Amino acid sequence: MIKAILVILALAAVIPTDPAKAQMYDPSYPVCMHVFGELDGERMDCIFTSLTQCATSASGRAATCLVNPYFAHASGRPRH
Fold it and tell me: Domain total for the chain?
């Protein structure tokens, strides 16, 4: 029993305990707004369907719009 506890403690000391990071980009929308600054905090909001829509929301804020590199375009054509 003591050996099992020592093995568990040894493994716990070796296994990294860094927290997992969430994916920043939502693949459902083609445009993201990168918000930064002390008031809003830094984050990526991927909730826009066009750059114009994003630019309207980002106006007057510490933010910039960009094309979502992980956008999973739902094509109507079947893949071969």
Answer: 1
Nearest partner of 30 among 50, 57, 52, judged by Cα: 50
Query: Is residue 53 in some structural domain?
Result: yes
Q: How far apart are CA 67 and CA 78, in angstroms?
A: 24
For the entire predicted model, the pTM comes to 0.60
Cα–Cα distance between 43 and 61 in angstroms, integer? Answer: 13
Kindly list the averaged pLDDT for each block of 10 residues, start to end, along the chain of length 80.
71 58 79 87 92 96 94 63
Q: Which residues contact 64 (CB under 8 A, 6 or more apart)?
A: 33, 34, 58
